[in-house]
Amino acid sequence: MVAIARLLLNDNQLLLIDEPTKGLAPLLVAEVADVLARAAEEVTILLVEQNLTVVQRMAHDAVVVDQGRVAWTGSAAGLLADADRTRELLGVASSGGAHAVGERASPPETERPVGMRATSASEEQV
């Protein structure tokens, strides 16, 4: 949390964040996701995350990387709504429904990293 707070002190145009919720307790996952969601309102975030609940909450676009190669790109909501595609690309089943962060004791994690881009409010207006 301190590292994220330090990042937000600067006038960044892009934040690159790699698995900020890995190994955290579910309550802390929810807190980190809250902070990142607020940050995404101000700055574009490129996030590598295996917690699909966090991805579902924040992502506009998703890129699935498998063995160093792009395996799929598109809408994060579209990917997570398609249980068969999610299973095929990520090795896990998605429920296809919305779940709040912290709602499950152990949110689904993918076997492959999912890169996502959360668009800031100012970028969406351009």
Considering the chains and any ligands shown, give keywords for the structure.
single chain, 126 residues, alpha+beta, Rossmann fold, five-stranded mixed sheet, globular, BCAA_Transport_ATP-bd_LivF, amino-acid transport, transport, P-loop_NTPase
Q: CATH topology, anyone?
A: Rossmann fold
Describe the strand arrangement of the main beta sheet, using strand numbers: 1-2-5-3-4
CATH class: Alpha Beta
* Nearest-integer average pLDDT: 78
CATH superfamily: P-loop containing nucleotide triphosphate hydrolases
Oligomerization status of the protein chains: single chain
In whole angstroms, the N-to-C terminal distance is 30 Å
Q: Architecture in CATH?
A: 3-Layer(aba) Sandwich
Number of strands: 5
Order of helices and strands: HEHEHEEHHEH
Number of helices: 6
**Helical proportion, percent range:** 25-40%
Family: Belongs to the ABC transporter superfamily.
Region (Disordered): 94-126
InterPro entries: BCAA_Transport_ATP-bd_LivF, P-loop_NTPase
Keywords: Amino-acid transport, Transport
